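2024-03-11 09:14:02 INFO queue: dequeued item Putative siderophore-interacting protein, len=281
2024-03-11 09:14:02 INFO validating residues
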Amino acid sequence: MNRGDHLATIAEVLAGTTGAKVPYPIGIRELEVVRSEMVGTGLLRLTLGGPELAGFESHAPDEHVRLVYPDADGTLRLPERDGFSLKWPRPLPISREYTVRRYDAEAGELDLDFALHDGGYASDWAQAATVGTRVHVAGPPGGVVVPWTYDRYLLAGDITALPAIARWLEMMPAAAAGWVFVEITDPSQEIELTVPEGVEVRWLHRGDVPAGHSDLLEQAVRTVTVPEGERVYAWISGEATSLKPIRRFVRDELGLSSGDHLITGYWKRGVADFDEDDDDH
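2024-03-11 09:14:37 INFO prediction written
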């Protein structure tokens, strides 16, 4: 990939009719925490900054970075730049993926929202982080670029998908229409969203049901009917197992082709650092 080629590809996809994954040149940066705040009761936002943030690229609402942590003995093993990608050491270092919630080049700030849960490696790290805490950030490796020419958009997920959904809504044109379903524990986890007038948002309260064990999201998505002749793009993320029936519904009943939807597991019950690319679904 020549530098700048991905920008031409992004422009082509935006001018087209279907979504597509676009890779970006990947970098590794050492950044530091400049601010920490809760967003609702379920998300902790860390704002990162530092000189090495210069040149960071951000183009798609679901793009992510990977935070790289020292080994248990304190050894820090980082990936090395290899052209426009990264070469990772083996065995792989401890790392976790997080959605780019906001990037402000002028302010030199990068926001990452952490869904808090007991025993989560990155969740525990984020809660312990203070101003000045340093971390290495790899990526983004790319993102799904979607043209704004669809008649409607369907966004759905649990709290781990909420940062990407919030960014999706901010990037949408004011005339966009569609549906948003977000499964959370209770109203305290609801957050303020920038929502186009034609988009309906429904918060789904799971209550005492453990995360990843509810079918609220599936039942909500099944209420969607696409008006005849209209084109819909669907983006849905959350716990991998619970997404399987939703994936079948979107493909078989809504009839969306591969370029018209992305459904991806962000995590899986009982699996640390889950990567859906390694999962047979």
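2024-03-11 09:14:37 INFO annotate: The longest helix spans residues 240-253.
2024-03-11 09:14:38 INFO item closed
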